[in-house]
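We include the entry.

. . .
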Amino acid sequence: MQFKDYYQILGVDKKATAEDIKKAFRRLARKYHPDVSKEADAAQRMSDVNEANAVLSDPEKRAAYDTVGAQAWAQGARSGDDVRPPPGWNAGYEWSDAKPGAGSGAGAQERDFSEFFEQMFGQQRGAGRRHAGGSGPLRGDDHHARIELALVDAYRGAERSIVLRGAKIDAEGHIVADERTLNVTIPKGVKQGQLIRLAGQGSPGFHGGAAGDLFLEVVFAEDARWRVDGADVTQRVVIAPWEAALGASIAVSTPDGATLSVTVPPGSGNGCKLRLKGRGIPASTPGELYLELEIAMPSAITDAQKAAWSALAAAYPGFDPRGH
């Protein structure tokens, strides 16, 4: 994804305090707001400034951003450079729907955020930071976090103790870590991208209002054994050349922990798929499990092995593998 250096956009140091961020945002908002600016690219610059402020003025988002940013800066990356953060980098980071900087200056209401922002934090669902003014009860903001699960959790369901990492501003205006641990029930059949709602685990309400909720977005941990598409799962299965050519009955361990006897049809080629109906992720209509065959070629080390390969070559006179 294309990296956005929010500190560079606001012109502040990476150790900037909350007050430094606020001052930089207000200064740039006065300079680039489309209603007053004469700059040719004022609208785009204002959009970038809004986005940078939305992240850096929110302790939770800033903590998550600094994780991927540290890797980018170590590589010498600047805004617009392509960055590939490690898998699962953002699992466990918590942020709220409250809109950082709301009411703090020109352009605070604009929400035209970049693809980089959306990939990091998803679509923003909140309507903006709620204020404690007034006498009526106000509901607290919802919170969001991504959690990384093993695929087997989707098949069986699970009880997990998860640590959510957030941040807060200390008395000097600096970002400090803030963590909490929750026990979470993972429902059977959960899918990639699904939101698990924990009622009342968001921000507290005001004037007796209800607390917000916490939404956990499910992300499956990367695993070389399988790929997930909705409720369907594709599993890599390695077979021998003679099993592919002659057919065979093989034992396959599936993601749900079962061991099945599967028939490989004679003449199966590399990349062929066998469908096991209803063996994907459980649901009212279960997904499918596809076994993708990969032929492993044994080496020829001993004289007997070399003779066997020579006999195989002799049995196929005129065979041209590059002509197929």
Q: What stands out?
A: Residues 100-110, 125-132 have pLDDT under 50 and may be disordered.
